[in-house]
Amino acid sequence: MAFWSNLLGYQVTWLLTVWSAGRGMAWIGMLACVGFVIWQWLASPVRSADSRVLLAALACGLLIDGGLALSGWLQYASPEPALPAPLWIVLLWGAFALTLNHSMRWFSIRPGGSAVRWRAGRWPIWRSARFFRGDVSR
């Protein structure tokens, strides 16, 4: 049950965050991310490990997405509030972090197969991102 609540909870969080940011209502996604992080952290049997992964992911979100946004390589539909990366994307990094020790644990157990699955999963993610931007005709 914990596996499925983590997996499906993150998918709902991601969907709400991307949808709301694309429509200029990023606060909905930010609330979803914070709610997911609190819910998963309280239910976690490995809070110490989750706390470390969460802090690392928040730092990565700030550095990676912030650096790409500052360099002009990324432009966000909803860039405010920014830290230099939009807060909603940084919080989404945090929400994703709380899947790594739970529903995405198999990434660390089978790193070779995980790379293949990650590569195969990029197309649906790219397609859904285009859909939420309203770019479905291409």
Notable characteristics:
single chain, globular, mainly alpha, 138 residues
Low-confidence residue ranges: none
Number of helices: 6
How many structurally independent domains?
A: 1
- Helical content class: over 70%
Q: What's the alpha carbon Rg, rounded to whole Å?
A: 15 Å
Question: Strand-residue fraction?
Answer: under 5%
Overall residue-averaged pLDDT value: 81
How would you explain this protein's 3D organization?
There is one protein chain. With 138 residues, this protein is an all-alpha fold. It has one domain (2-104). The chain is built from 6 helices and no strands. Helix 1 packs antiparallel against helix 2 (26-43), helix 1 packs antiparallel against helix 4 (87-97) and helix 2 (26-43) packs parallel to helix 4. The protein is globular and about 40 Å long. It starts with a helix and ends in a 5-residue tail after the last helix.
List the helices and strands and how they pair.
Blueprint lengths: L1 H21 L3 H18 L3 H25 L15 H11 L8 H4 L1 H23 L5
Helix pairs in contact: 1-2, 1-4, 2-4, 3-4
In short:
The protein is an all-alpha fold and 138 residues long.
